[in-house]
Structure formats: C-alpha cells, structure tokens
Amino acid sequence: AQTVTQSQPEMSVQEAETVTLSCTYDTSENNYYLFWYKQPPSRQMILVIRQEAYKQQNATENRFSVNFQKAAKSFSLKISDSQLGDTAMYFCAFMKRASGTYKYIFGTGTRLKVLA
Amino acid sequence: SAVISQKPSRDICQRGTSLTIQCQVDSQVTMMFWYRQQPGQSLTLIATANQGSEATYESGFVIDKFPISRPNLTFSTLTVSNMSPEDSSIYLCSVFDGYEKLFFGSGTQLSVL
C-alpha cells in the first residue's frame, strides 16, 4: 500500500526567506502523480503544485518549486520569498489510477508559519 | 478549475441528530469525493459519489452512517447520521477535473455536542 510521510509537523520561516518542506512516499507504482496542497485557516484546500512521475523536470509555479527525486521517493516543496499569506497547513499527496477511479493519499501535513 | 460551493460552512449539532451537507459544482464533473478531516489530522476518503448509482465507500465507512446522494453531475449531498462527538470533523467535498487535479470545496466544520 502507498504511504505518504511528512516528517516535519511544524515549521516557521521569516518573511522573504526560503523554506523547504519535506515529503517522502512509498509505492511500487511507476506511473503516479504528486501534489502539494495548502490549507489556510479558512479550511479551503488549495492546489499549490503538481508533478507527474514520468517527468524528470521539477515543477515550478511562481514562488513554489519542487525537488522530485523519484529513485529516493522524495518530493519536497520549496517556497521562495515567503509571504505572510503562505501561513497554512501544507499537505503532500500521492495519486494513482486504480480500478477506474483515482486514489489520493495525503500526508499528515506540515504547519508552516511565516513570521513578520 | 472547478468552483465548488459547500453548505453549511459550519454547524453545531446535538448527539443523535443528522446533518446533510451540500456540494454544488459550477460545471459537470464525473468524479466527486467526500473526505473527512478530524481535528489536527490528515484527510481520509469517506466515499466516491457516483452519478446515478450508489456511492462507493472506503473501508471503515458505511452507507447507513454516511448516506450520499448524487442526482446529477453537478450536485451531491453527504449526510452524517445519528451523530456522536466522534463525528466532529471537517467534511470536504472534492471533484476531479479529469486532468489529475483534485479541487476542494471550502469544507463544513461540524461540532457534535
């Protein structure tokens, strides 16, 4: 069975600095997708970034980028120029197609606080 | 991306009662899912809401406790029945956009006294 592990329950970073959130996963699949979601206090889950396992190039979305190491099964999120609005819970997620549907598995989350 | 409206945003309920949560999407979607997020925890899939047929429940969740309706491709409801304090959670509706992306509603914060 697939598992997703986020080993950092809480992190903090100074505004304008860079922070990296860790995520590791375990799977025997070759084709899958990885995601980072952000959940601010408003509870809304917001998709931050997506990575296809078959792509070697790391995904980038503005200030957000990932370091995808397929062999190591590692998928970290780097936030550059951190802003106060980045304060949120961040969830790493794994997705694969299975039995006609799509199975998502979420990590336990990392609570990030951006300090002014 | 799909716009998902979820109601109510929060509710406080008495033990033994039921609450129905509504999820409305601004476009037709094939797959809709219901998740539970217990306090301080990650997301757990309750069921996949299938249009025109019975929902597919994950292990540990049963239809009698969490009946789901999906009358069309833009709407679904989740009922939390015979509630107990252990049902206090955030309940999230989500939809799959067909491009490997999952979008979420704003969630329903449920507290059971």
Task: Put the structure in a nutshell.
Chain A is mainly beta.
Question: What separation lies between the terminal Cα atoms of chain A?
Answer: 41 Å
Report the structural category of chain A.
Answer: mainly beta
Considering DSSP H and I runs of 4 or more, what fraction of the residues of chain B is helical? under 10%
CA gyration radius of chain B, whole angstroms: 13 Å
Query: Which of globular, elongated, flat, extended, rod-shaped describes the shape of chain B?
Result: globular
Number of strands of chain B: 11
Strand count, sense and barrel status of the largest sheet of chain A are: 6 strands, mixed
Helix and strand layout, with pairings?
The complex is a heterodimer of chains A (116) and B (113).
Chain A: E1 3-5, E2 10-14, E3 19-21, E4 24-26, E5 33-39, E6 46-52, E7 60-61, E8 64-69, E9 74-79, E10 88-98, E11 101-106, E12 110-115
Parallel strand pairs in A: 2-12
Antiparallel strand pairs in A: 1-4, 3-9, 5-6, 5-10, 7-8, 8-9, 10-11, 10-12
Chain B: E1 4-7, E2 10-13, E3 19-25, E4 31-37, E5 43-49, E6 56-57, E7 68-72, E8 75-80, E9 89-96, E10 102-104, E11 108-112
Parallel strand pairs in B: 2-11
Antiparallel strand pairs in B: 1-3, 3-8, 4-5, 4-9, 5-6, 7-8, 9-10, 9-11
Fold and architecture overview:
The complex is a heterodimer of chains A (116) and B (113). With 116 residues, chain A is mainly beta. Helix content of chain A is 0%, strand content 56%. In chain B, 0% of the residues lie in helices and 51% in strands. Chain B contains no helices and 11 strands. Chain B has strands at residues 4-7, 10-13, 19-25, 31-37, 43-49, 56-57, 68-72, 75-80, 89-96, 102-104, 108-112. In chain B, strands 2, 4, 5, 6, 9, 10 and 11 form a 7-stranded mixed sheet that branches. The radius of gyration of chain B is 13 Å and the shape is globular. Classes of the chains: A mainly beta (116), B mainly beta (113). The interface between A and B is medium-sized, with 21 and 21 residues.
